[in-house]
Amino acid sequence: MEPNRFTRAQRGVLDYLLLGWSNREVARQLQLSVRTVETHVEALLRRSRTRNRTALVAWWLQSQQ
What we know:
Blueprint: H1 8-17, H2 23-30, H3 34-48, H4 53-63
């Protein structure tokens, strides 16, 4: 999956995951429910074919080099 294939909402969530924010913190900042953020995280994991947030962040950083 190419990084530019994420939706705008998924990319917004990813930006905060890169900063190490929790789902709750992201939800508060973006004025979303925690469940909505969780759904975006699940989609990011699925689309990047990674298993967890740490792997997602590593994948993203590597794809940007």
